[in-house]
Amino acid sequence: MGMIHVTKPMESFAEKMKGLERLVSAQEPAGLPKYIATAHLNKPYLTGTLTPMLGVIEAAGTTNAGVVVPKVDPSREPMKYFSGFLGLDEYVGKVAIDQGGEYDNDHWINLLISQHPREVLIVELAWLNSAIRQPDLAARIQGQFRGILLDSLRDYFDQAMGQHDLARVFLARQPVLRAIRQVLLYAGHTKEEPAFPPWVTAIMLAHAFASGLGHWKAGERDFLETGPDLWPGMKASMAVELVQNFLFNQQEDVLARLDRYSRLWDYYGQNLKRSRPRASPNELVKEATGVDRLDLFAVVYSLLARALNWKPGENFKVPDPYQGIGMERALFDTALGVVTTDEATLQEELAGAPDDWQMLPFEQHPVLRIGESVVVLDQGYLIDKATSGLYWIVLDHEEKVYGKKAKETIVWSQAYSEMVEVLAEDTLRAMRLRLLPDGGKTFYTEEDLSAAYGKGVRLCDAVMYFGRGMALFEIQKGQVSLDTRQRGLVEKFKSDTGRMVLTKAKQLQGTADAIFADESALTGYPPTNGLRIFPVAVMGGTYPVNPVTDEYIRIELKELSLLDGLNAGGLEPLAVVDIGELEMLEGLVEKRGIGVLDTLEDWKKGAVSRWSLRNYLIDQYGTSWDQFRPSRMGSSFNALTESVIPRLKVRSESKTADGL
Prior knowledge:
The protein is α/β, with parallel strands linked by helices.
């Protein structure tokens, strides 16, 4: 790349594959990129100039409707769970104004884009997007960039990065991807003598987009302060912006994710009981993509290996992604086609995605094909394509072949729901109480509940008995809609919350009422004195839990007279979690012996009650992923990764082409 001019011997592709396996294994050597080795909070990013959002965050912590965010003393502690990314206006803009001129962000974007050919800037920006996930590399880039700044430019840069009220990041994923979009759409002249080298231009371009995020909508810079209220005192536009932010920036343990989706397809997809899709889930993937699911994963894995193992002196663009691979070329190319596209296709799709959070073209095509070479634009979306994205690949295929409302399409969604539900139930079952004196039952399924309470009662999916109380779980496979997470449509957010949370609250309420009325009908034991019930809605995807969504749910529950809204004795606040968080809890139960009810209670009554369970667990137990991984985790992951090299037929070679 344009910086760090160090020449090192090239690693063979086989060595790169082994390196990636070490990165996502349970035994991480010291100094690995934190993207792989440590837990990430669901952390939103804010521009330094997005003052409406910061104004809410730095408020005393309440509105007339209740708590918005935790109260934080900026003089003593950076704002919890928030980081701000640097904007070009914060250093270049200030120097321009000091010199008697003005700062026009759009002008600077056009100036920077015209500095170098499109391909050069795309590769540099993709490289920066990869570097963000590797703290050591990102720090080196920041240091070298700072080193080229002179006098007041460097002073303003240091001032912005050194703010104490909000932790700052040098680069962030959202502005980098928006910069890639604009570079792809740029059709103007390229300067013959650029003012900056490519890597400097790419960084400044990302900073320019950071300055502009959140300001273009409706042509108003105060967009987040306009429009209707979600509730009195909270603008709907601002609330949904925060929802989109959390959904975009959420991260989880890569090993856990790969293990989960491997089990989901290899075991639960092959052992469906209630649903009967027209073919097995793995066969449906092959029909939709033209390749076996594991072959697709092997090719994705190979692309990740090349990106994550980039070394100084190498080109981030891969001249030949087939280099070092012996898999049948047609098979490799078919799998590659699932995750790649050409410039013309991506340009057309990006032209129709102008909003700050409209990333669907990158989700669908995380790798760009430039002639015979490829460049990984976004590693997160690439992993998604081979995990959570498989459901959508099959759904799109079923809809295309049979129609949206066809039986085949509906049955596929039902089958996937069953896969997710049974996987979640098994995760819960692993945490059940096993120490009743007479060996009595402590885990109850929906069938057990139906047998106890009969028809006409709203029943949840699972109940766990822990002596002093019960945890009730209702599981659903859905996720926040595209219209919410990318377009920010308030009515769709309300609809999503109703579908994913409030409808599940009704199931939980019905089960809680039945148990309070006749606990013995379920357990066969005398009723528990002072029984506490902990209702939990489990997301197969992810619902963004933060102070805004938490407050909205509470308001709606009160309106519906459900759970928290009833303020009934014995009923604890509703908890919203995802399956990844259940797995983290499972690991802690196994390795630390923590109590499930104690954890839920401490979380919902503590200082971070309005943030996700993941954030609470990391706050309590630290950032080592190993403690959150149940011992059973890894067997399916190992089988998955061990299948990669034989499927790719990786050739051992002493040298590879530039860029591998």
